[in-house]
């Protein structure tokens, strides 16, 4: 029988179990896929520890690549043998095989290998919607992006450079600073050595930036507001350090009529047309060579607990995949 990761309770990495699962035939609108690789993302930690709730027992994992085994009634955009990739709800990508909604699955171009496909869908489509939909960049801006050496961050470094955007990135070590620079980040701030608010003001001549992209949450939220120019926008798209605590709206007014938004990839790709558009743009960037997907860690699927420990300890850089 195929293997998969399941949880019956929330908690630390130890709650994940490597078990046999039965994968039935796909129903109407569904597809049966065999995974070649599965992506690891911080959202998986949120589901595992209970920060994001789901009915238990449950699977984990939001993205993978692989091959179509069978399609259910009404599925016309896929057929058995197609190479595919996805980032989708509900969780369950940590598996050798699964049945899932076909509308969330796209064909993977022949030029993109399975490891890259599994590593890039959630993170790459996140950068696409952040830069093109949430706060649309036109080129010429100077922006602040936290966790610049992470999976999303290294893609953002390259994408910003390709768009003609000057990216200021924050990282937690000198090694991560070099990595971000190597991927196109124009200015890198080690927040363990420097005050990133002061450095952003210095880099921008005191003006601040029009937008901050922040996946850290609690530890960076208020300082990020202090980096914004009047009428600027803080895009809070994650909470690696914990959820943002309650704050008064006067915090925004007193700093210059600021905006704050909390977007989600899954809202942006809920409609099939939008998913196709966002995925196609990501594929174009990768196929052109403007964005390379750094797969810096690989773990066997059965070793997922160690992968989660390393992710939470911020020991990983770039993208991480699990191999069934």
Automatic annotation (TrEMBL):
Any one Pfam family match given in the protein's UniProt record, by short name: ADH_N
One Gene Ontology term, aspect cellular component: cytosol
Cited InterPro entries: ADH-like_C, ADH-like_N, ER, GroES-like_sf, NAD(P)-bd_dom_sf, QOR-like, Quin_OxRdtase/zeta-crystal_CS
Keywords: NADP, Oxidoreductase
Signal peptide: none
CDD domains to which the protein is assigned, alphabetical: QOR2
Domain Enoyl reductase (ER): 11-322
A GO MF term: mRNA 3'-UTR AU-rich region binding
Protein name as it appears in the record: NADPH2:quinone reductase
Originating organism: Paucimonas lemoignei (Pseudomonas lemoignei)
């Amino acid at each position: 029988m195929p293997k998969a990761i399941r949880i019956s309770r929330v908690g630390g990495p130890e709650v994940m179990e490597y078990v046999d699962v039965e994968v039935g035939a796909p129903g109407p609108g569904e597809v049966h896929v065999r995974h070649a690789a599965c992506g690891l993302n911080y959202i998986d930690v949120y589901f595992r520890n209970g920060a994001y709730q789901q009915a238990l027992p449950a699977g984990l994992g939001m993205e993978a690549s692989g091959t179509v085994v069978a399609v259910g009634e009404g599925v016309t955009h896929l057929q058995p043998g197609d190479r595919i990739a996805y980032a989708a709800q509900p969780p369950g990508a940590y598996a050798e095989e699964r049945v899932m909604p076909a509308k969330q699955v796209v064909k993977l171009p022949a030029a993109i290998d399975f490891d890259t496909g599994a590593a890039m869908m959630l993170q790459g489509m996140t950068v696409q919607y952040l830069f093109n939909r949430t706060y649309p960049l036109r080129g010429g801006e100077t922006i602040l992006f936290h966790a610049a050496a992470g999976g999303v961050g290294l893609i953002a470094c390259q994408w910003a450079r390709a768009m003609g955007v000057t990216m200021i990135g924050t990282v937690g070590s000198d090694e991560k600073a070099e990595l971000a620079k190597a991927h196109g980040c124009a200015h890198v701030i080690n927040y363990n050595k420097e005050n990133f608010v002061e450095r952003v003001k210095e880099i921008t001549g005191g003006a601040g930036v029009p937008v901050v992209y922040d996946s850290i949450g609690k530890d960076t939220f208020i300082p990020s507001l202090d980096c914004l120019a009047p009428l600027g926008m803080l895009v809070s798209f994650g909470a690696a350090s914990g959820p943002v605590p309650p704050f008064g709206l006067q915090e925004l007014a007193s700093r210059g009529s600021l905006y704050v938004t909390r977007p989600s990839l899954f809202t942006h790709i809920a409609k099939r047309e939008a998913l196709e558009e966002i995925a196609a743009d990501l594929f174009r960037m990768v196929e052109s060579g403007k964005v390379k997907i750094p797969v810096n860690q690989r773990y066997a699927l059965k070793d997922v607990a160690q992968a989660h420990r390393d992710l939470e300890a911020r020991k990983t850089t770039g993208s991480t995949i699990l191999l069934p």
